[in-house]
Each structure stands twice: as structure tokens, then as C-alpha cells.
Amino acid sequence: MRRSIAACLLSLCACAAAQEPASREAFTFAIELVKGSDADMRAVALERLRDGLKGEAYTVELAEKVLPGLKPDVQVLLLSALAGRGDAAAVPGIVKVSEAGDAVVAPAASRAIASLGGAAQVPMLVGRLDGEKSVGDAARAALVAIQGDEVAARLVAAAADGTAPPSRRAAILEVLADRRERAAIDTMVAAAVATDATVRAAAMRSLARLGGPAEVPGLVAGFLAAAAGKERDDAERAVLQVCGQGPETKAASASLWDAYRAARGDAQDTLLPLVSRVGLPDLLPIVDALVADPDPARRARGLAALARWPDATVKDRLLGLLAKTEAEPERRLLVGALIRIAPLPKNGLTDAQKLELLAGTLKLCSTDDERRRLLERAGAIRTVESLRFIMPSLDEPAVAEAAAKGVVELAHHQKLRDGNKAEFNAALDRVLAVAKDPVTRDRAERYKQGKTWERRAR
Fold first, then answer.
1. What is the pLDDT of residue 17?
2. Cα 134 to chain center, whole Å?
3. Sign of torsion, CA 36 37 39 41?
4. What is the pTM of this model?
5. What pLDDT digit, counting tens, does each position of 381-416 carry?
6. SS (H, E, C) 32-72
7. Which residues make Cβ contacts (< 8 Å) with residue 241, sequence separation at least 6?
8. Domain ranges of the chain
9. 3-state helix/strand/coil string of 393-417
10. In angstroms, rounded to a whole number, what is the distance separating the alpha carbons of residues 201 and 164?
11. Phi and psi torsions of 335, nearest 5°
């Protein structure tokens, strides 16, 4: 009732002075309601201020005179209304309030500035990236959204500023990637070899999203600059992302091959595992030569490269080496590679060939751990023959839990399950009889009832 009364009063006040851009009486009344303690009345007034009572003079008054005197929670509400008015005249007042605001007001002000501001507000938002989480997150979102001439140029300059805190530069690089600012590519390439690891990592992530064949040399330089361990692993993923997505995959892979051939000494050795992940055919003769080398270190590099290959092109090489090796570390490496490669979705094999390779690899496994990994991986070959392959292992206590996971992974695919209902029901009953893992059991029970199961994000 109070909301209706307030709305009527505001409308009457507006009509009373229709010759003005908006009614001064209605405007004054709305401000009184905003300042008051009645939340329902305030909501009506804010709606009127957002969608009506237009005029630059009112906007300036709201931002520079009304806004500063409100409590923080009400300031947040009025900032939203000012953003909804779409009048850039509010920006100076919003900036002043945001500078004096707390951790609640500052993020709301950043959101309003994202709607109303432009290049002039970029430095202020950039400075807030170093603030506490709520303030920094809001500033980042605002920098992604804000529009206007020179916004991109100012962000690129800020990202290139070597005197700025590394965390700030990293955040700006990510913002530029979110904005899809290709004008920042050269800055990202330069940052990929920066002295600070935080900046390097952000540059590599950004290049992974925006880069193409032309940026591969810069990505390679960033990969080589990355510290061994997590940073280099992440850098590898960035290079692989560019070489494995979009219509320019072949050109990007060719650029990676050129970079590898141009590298010398230790750099080429460091690049070998990365290049092998792309699976370039021209690399195989080099890998073969390394595997055949009498130097144990060179042979190890060649074997590691084969074990990282992305498809089944190297399966015969792996099987041949397994037949000859007597070294247990080599055997484990080669078997692990086959377990990984055999069920891959796009490995160049049919489903029947994948299962045949997996069955052959099972005979080469010498440990329960290897057999467990293989049985879980079998669940990726979506055929009823895979189910039949896994089923006998449910009767072996040492690997039954892994086999059960393979079964429920197959049962996850409703068309496969429904097309072979009797076999899957029997298999799921057996899973429920042997499995102890609560997730596996939950999946089996749901699939038995024809229900779905949502995979939790990690």
C-alpha cells in the first residue's frame, strides 16, 4: 500500500509541473523518500529517479549533493539508480564518493562508472585493482565493460608500465584479454618474458585466448622464460591452446615447428616435450634417433617425447619398444602412454581398434595400479563391448573398484545404457555389490532408476 501511495504522489507531483523537464516537487519528494527510513517508499523513489525525472541538473544534484550525505547501504542503491539514468554528468560526483567510500560503496561506484564513464576514469579503476577483493573485482569488471575512445590505449599503456606492481599489470593483461583487445597483442608478447612470474603467467594466459600463428614465436619465448614446474606447465597449456584450436591450427603448429627448428642447444631440449604434445609428424624421425641413441639421457628424452604424443600414431613404436625393454622405468612409461592414448576420442582409431589396443595393453600391465588406471580409462570407449571387457574385473578384489568406475562412466551415456538395458542393469547390480566408493554407488543407483547424474566441477 505504501509503495502505491508513494508512486501516485510522485506521479501527481510530476504532472503538476509538466512544463519543466521534470517536476521539482516530485524530485524533492523523491529525495526525501530516499533519505527516509521506509524501505518500500525508498524503492519507489529510486525507481522514479532511475527511469523518470530526467535532466542533467537533477543528475548532478543527485550525484554531488544527495549521494555524499547518504548512509553507505543507501549510497549503493542510489549509485545503481544513477547508472540506470545513463547520464554521464553523474560521473564526477560518483568518483568523489567512491574515493571516500568503504568496501561496499567503492565496488558499487565502479559498477556505475563502468556504465557512465570513459577513458578518463581508467586510471582510477586501474589503481583499485590492488584493493581488497570486493574492490579489486569490481574494478576489474568495470574495466572490462567500460567503453569510449582511448580506453583500450590507456589499458595497454598501463599493462606495459614496468614500474607498476606486478599483480596490477597481470590483472590488466587479463582485462585486455576479456575485452578481446587485439591491439594489446604486442604488449602481451613482451610481457610473456617479463622478469616477474606473475606478469609472465598472465601474459601467457592472455595470449592463449587471443593469439594465433603469428604469436606462436612469442608464446614459445614465454614458455622458455617460464620457471620449471607449474609455471612452465601452464605455459605449455597456453601454447597447446593456440596450436589446437580454431581454423588456424595447422598454421600455428607449423609456426611451432619453425620455432623448434630455430632453437639451439638446451632451448631445443626444453621445447621437445611441448612439440611432442602437438604430434608433428616431422618430429618423429628426431624422436626415433633419440630413442636409438646409446646415451641414456638422450634416449630418455626420446622416450618421454613418445609418451606424450597426442594420438595413436606412435602405438606401434610404443609396443615395439615394450617388447624389447628390460628396464622397469621404461616399461612403466611406455605402458602408461598406451593406457592414456588408447581411449582418446580423436586418436585416429575406431572404437573397436581402441578396445583392441586397450585389451592388448592390459596383458602388458604388471601392477594392479596399471590395471586400475586402464579399467577406468576403458569407460571412455562408449560401446557395449567396452562394458563386456570391463565386467570380468569386477570379480577381482584388487581392481574391482576401478572396474566399477569404468562401468558407471559407460552407464552415464543414456543412449548406450538404454540401448543395452538388460546388460547395464546387471552390470550396475554387480557394481552395487562390490563398490565401496559412495560416488560410484550413487551413480549406479541413479542410472539403475533411469535418472541423470551431474558431474561436480573440480
1. 39
2. 20
3. negative
4. 0.83
5. 999 999 999 999 999 999 999 999 999 999 999 999
6. HHHHCCCHHHHHHHHHHHHHCCCCHHHHHHHHHHHHHHCCH
7. 208, 209
8. 161-244+255-263, 374-458
9. HHHCCCCHHHHHHHHHHHHCCHHHH
10. 16
11. -65, -45
Angle at 274 (CA atoms; ends 270, 276), nearest 5 degrees: 110
Handedness of CA 60, 63, 64, 67 (dihedral sign): positive
User: In terms of C-beta density within 10 A (0-12 exposed, 13-18 middle, 19 or more buried), how is residue 405 classed?
Assistant: buried
Structural contact between residues 17 and 27, judged by C-beta atoms closer than 8 angstroms: no
Residue 439: how many other CB atoms lie within 10 Å: 13
Residue entry with cell 620455432: 259
The closest of 442, 434, 410, 436 to 423, measured between CA atoms, is: 410
Residue 206: burial class (beta carbons within 10 Å; 0-12, 13-18, 19+) = buried
Residue 350 is placed in which grid cell?
575406431
C-beta neighbour count of 273 within 10 angstroms: 15
Q: Under the phi-then-psi rule, with left for phi > 0, alpha for psi from -120 to 50, and beta for the rest, what region is 20?
A: beta
Distances (CA, A) of 357 to 142, 302, 400, 427: 52, 22, 21, 23
For Cα atoms 138, 139, 142, give the angle at the middle one, nearest 5 degrees.
Answer: 85
Report the sign of the C-alpha dihedral through residues 361, 363, 364, 370, in that order: positive
- Using 70 as the pLDDT threshold, list the residues of the chain that sit under it: 1-22, 101, 245-246, 456-458
Given a contact cutoff of 8 angstroms between Cβ atoms, the answer to whether 357 and 315 are in contact is: yes
Cβ-contact 417, 453 below 8 angstroms: no
DSSP assignment, residue 283?
G
DSSP string, 183-207: GGHHHHHHHTT-SSHHHHHHHHHHH
Cell 562394458, residue?
A: 387
Q: Are 33 and 74 in contact (CB under 8 A)?
A: no
Provide φ and ψ at 247, rounded to 5°.
-70, -10
Please say whether the beta carbons of 127 and 166 come within 8 A.
Answer: no
The grid coordinates listed for 214 are: 603469428
